[in-house]
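To the wet lab folks,

You asked to see what we're planning to order before we commit. Fair enough. Below is the target structure as tokens, and below that is the sequence we designed to fit it. If anything looks off to you, flag it before the synthesis order goes out.
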């Protein structure tokens, strides 16, 4: 095979992946946008988190690579093209981390990253797996951002998915707060001062 043919074949694979990724714009999340006018889509969520990773880098723990976190967050929800959004508060908080969902997301990652040339596909697959495991400082940072952004959108929109799922303060702390505080304790302290009155006013 000529070099030109190889280059063309690689471009075919790169764009096959990129065009597949466009489908993330059609995946609707449980969280509304800031003004409550509609639901956020997963592509918007991913872009916003990449921006969070850059802007909040000064809050990151030692050992965090903010640019690597940006990469993680740009790809972390691509699996939702196949699986859809699984809200953190759905099924009493049990659905999101279930074995069934994890297995489905793993299969989706292999399919989607498998569209790429093997070298790049393997790199992105490993990056996605690092994010999911949440064991490295960078993955913990990225996971904390992933949890905190919907909280702020719910607060801005007047309750959002908290209303849909009858979320209490204790549930929010268990399902979200502990994960945010793991990587961004000062950020969670700040966020709590903003959202606690909403729950207090409703006796939640």
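Sequence we intend to order:
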């Amino acid at each position: 095979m000529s070099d030109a043919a190889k280059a063309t074949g690689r471009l075919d694979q790169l764009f096959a992946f990129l065009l597949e990724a466009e489908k993330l714009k059609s995946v609707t999340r449980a969280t509304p946008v800031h003004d409550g006018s509609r639901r956020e889509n997963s592509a918007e969520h991913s872009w916003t988190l990449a921006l969070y990773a850059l802007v909040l880098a000064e809050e990151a723990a030692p050992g965090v690579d903010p640019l690597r976190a940006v990469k993680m967050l740009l790809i972390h929800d691509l699996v939702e093209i196949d699986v859809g959004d699984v809200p953190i508060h759905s099924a009493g908080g049990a659905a999101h981390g279930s074995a069934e969902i994890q297995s489905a997301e793993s299969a989706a990652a292999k399919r989607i990253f498998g569209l790429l040339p093997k070298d790049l596909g393997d790199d992105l697959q490993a990056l996605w797996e690092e994010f999911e495991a949440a064991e490295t400082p960078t993955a913990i940072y990225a996971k904390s951002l992933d949890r905190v952004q919907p909280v702020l959108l719910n607060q801005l929109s007047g309750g959002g998915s908290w209303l849909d799922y009858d979320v209490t303060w204790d549930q929010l702390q268990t399902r979200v707060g502990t994960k945010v505080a793991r990587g961004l304790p000062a950020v969670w302290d700040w966020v709590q001062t903003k959202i606690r009155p909403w729950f207090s006013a409703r006796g939640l």
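Structural context that might help your review: The CA atoms of residues 113 and 121 lie 5 Å apart. The chain has one domain: 9-201.

Thanks,
Computational group
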